[in-house]
Amino acid sequence: MSELHNQKAAALAAIAAASDLTALEETRLAALGKKGWVSLALKTLGQMSPEERAAAAPAIQAARAEIADALDAKKAALEAAELAARLASETVDLTLPTPAQPKGSVHPVSQVMDELAEIFADLGFAVATGPEIEDDWHNFTALNMDETHPARAMHDTFYFSDKTADGKDVLLRTHTSPVQIRSMLDQGAPIRIIAPGRVYRSDSDATHTPMFHQVEGLVIDRDIHLGHLKWTLETFFKAFFEREDITLRLRPSYFPFTEPSVEVDVGYSTEGGRRVVGGHGDAPGHAWMELGGSGMVNARVLEFAGLDPKEWQGFAFGLGIDRIAMLKYGMNDLRAFFDGDPRWLAHYGFSPFDQPTLSAGVGARA
Ligand code: DAH
Fold first, then answer.
1. What is the mean pLDDT of residues 101-124?
2. Which of 11, 91, 110, 307 is 20 to 30 A from 297, comparing alpha carbons?
3. Residue 214 CA, closest ligand 1 atom number
4. Mean pLDDT of the chain
5. CATH of 108-348, one of 3.90.1150.200, 3.10.350.10, 1.10.260.40, 3.30.930.10
6. Whose CA is nearest to atom 14 of ligand 1?
7. Long-range contacts of 46-49 (CB under 8 A, 24+ apart)
8. Residues 99-119, mean pLDDT to the nearest whole number
9. From CA 314, how far away is CA 302, in angstroms rounded?
């Protein structure tokens, strides 16, 4: 008994004397670690008779609890002291003049979103938003993908375990298309919006990240046809890439929410290992690259969104923002977009003063 008492006193003294977290961890291991003396003492209980154990156990358990409490208290005190020391050494003197070299930059994705808003605002589009945590009705059903639609499986959706109050599945939106539905339900027709934002899919490699960015476009009015779609996208890409020789090819495709559906390809060539958009994809030294999907809004989607398809038609499109940012500004690894490495940001980021405007150029670099 008195040996236990002495050991406990020695342990408490060592804890009190520990000057940092490493020293404290050593005292913890010596007492409570797998080979620590408290653990060994607890093991001896197994070899005792029930009477002996009943007499010895409470003292050992009590010593163990007392040491554990002392360790917790000392750990909290050391951490608080460490934080206080860091705060004292890392103070910011707000009375100092601003640095000659301004720090911080605008991420290329933010810059490209501003460029998109600027170009489409000039064409009469407003910017719409929707929630990133969506329900499956807006993300799938109202876009003409019912529960059994195979396209649902292709989206690699992140689901939440909760459901909405009315029993719908809750998920991270897999595309910006649900903003079409929300905008039509909110505003009715006519409508002209773009919806840039984050989308999520359970997919990860050099060209896919679990979170990425899309921009959705939606135009609903009377007598809208595919010609309007092609002109709008062509006008946008000419302004965005700041060159007149942009050639688009609309290739027949399938999306549940458009009919007819087309994939949008742009002609490009390769210069010094880098893809440069421009020119006709069938011209010598050129090829086509897919930039996104689009089509005429499916009549069923209009009905889900409360519009009469006999009165209203429209087109929609969806583009990958990260993709067009990489093309315009010459990055080759998508994953670096989301690493937050300050060296990458210093190289590819934009000055906050470099606001994209049509008059000064939507791609001007500081
Ligand atoms: N939502 C589609 C996707 O993420 C892209 C898309 C295709 C959007 C066609 C559209 C569209 O608005 O008309 O794969």
1. 92
2. 110
3. 4
4. 92
5. 3.30.930.10
6. 175
7. none
8. 89
9. 9
